[in-house]
């Protein structure tokens, strides 16, 4: 699904050039659960943004599902993201002015889905995330764990092939963090590919493979016997 070769990303100011990624090579197969770890500033989020087509590499090759992403126009990248990618962020990134239902519905509106079909899909995913009873509430009326459930519902409502999760439990207590990791594990067991950036050793044990970045390079890679969803 993901093929990255000799990927580089630099940020330039008038005085200095910073190399955020320096020759990254990575393959992620369909159905894998991969955790990316490393200290702050090592390039984890930069790599995730490039995989998510939110940023472009300075050099190297990135293929998603056979498409060379670097050569695509912005409109083509947007089209490729639609329905294929779902994003889960540490800070939830919900829209405060929209209800839970409306936040989750938004990606389906972008896909120009009918109102009846949108309603059915949103209600189904909210029930699965055990947050349907909050569908008319606004984000600020929810706990952190509930907000992350809504964010995951929004990410998966289009049934994407790939979920990109950036520190998905970073703002949660341990109980809610375990619940979120259980949800991601269940989605992966159903066939969704997951690439997750994390600082958490505990969370990394849910993944099939752990990649460690340091100074923009992959320094170690290890296979896991992934944890099962915990009760």
TrEMBL record:
ATP-binding found in the keyword field: yes
PROSITE patterns: ABC_TRANSPORTER_1, ABC_TRANSPORTER_2
Record key words, sorted: ATP-binding, Nucleotide-binding, Transport
The keyword Nucleotide-binding is assigned to this record: yes
One Pfam family hit: ABC_tran
GO function terms (MF aspect): ATP binding; ATP hydrolysis activity; transmembrane transporter activity
InterPro entries named among the record's database cross-references: AAA+_ATPase (IPR003593), ABC_transporter-like_ATP-bd (IPR003439), ABC_transporter-like_CS (IPR017871), ABC_transpr_LolD-like (IPR015854), MacB-like_ATP-bd (IPR017911), P-loop_NTPase (IPR027417)
Cross-referenced SUPFAM superfamilies: P-loop containing nucleoside triphosphate hydrolases (SSF52540)
GO annotations of cellular component type: membrane protein complex; plasma membrane
Location of the ABC transporter domain: 2-231
Family: Belongs to the ABC transporter superfamily. Macrolide exporter (TC 3.A.1.122) family.
Name the record gives this protein: ABC transport system ATP-binding protein
Organism: Flagellimonas taeanensis
């Amino acid at each position: 699904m993901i093929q990255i070769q000799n990927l580089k990303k630099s940020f330039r100011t008038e005085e200095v050039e910073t190399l955020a990624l320096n020759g990254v090579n990575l393959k992620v197969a369909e159905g894998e659960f991969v955790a990316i770890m490393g200290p702050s500033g090592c390039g984890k989020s930069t790599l995730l943004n490039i995989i998510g087509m939110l940023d472009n590499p300075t050099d190297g090759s990135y293929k998603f599902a056979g498409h060379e992403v670097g050569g695509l126009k912005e409109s083509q990248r947007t089209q490729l993201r639609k329905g294929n990618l779902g994003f889960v962020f540490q800070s939830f990134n919900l829209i405060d002015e929209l209800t839970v239902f409306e936040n989750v519905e938004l990606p389906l509106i972008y896909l120009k889905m009918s109102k009846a079909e949108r309603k059915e899909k949103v209600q189904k995913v909210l029930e699965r995330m055990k947050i349907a009873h909050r569908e008319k509430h606004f984000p600020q009326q929810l706990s952190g764990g509930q907000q992350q459930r809504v964010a995951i519902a929004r990410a998966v409502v289009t049934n994407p092939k790939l979920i990109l999760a950036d520190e998905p439990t970073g703002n949660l207590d341990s109980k809610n963090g375990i619940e979120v990791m259980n949800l991601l594990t269940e989605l992966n067991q159903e066939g969704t590919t997951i690439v997750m950036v994390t600082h958490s050793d505990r969370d990394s044990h849910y993944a099939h493979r752990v990649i460690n970045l340091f100074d923009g390079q992959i320094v170690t890679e290890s296979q896991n016997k992934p944890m099962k969803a915990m009760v």
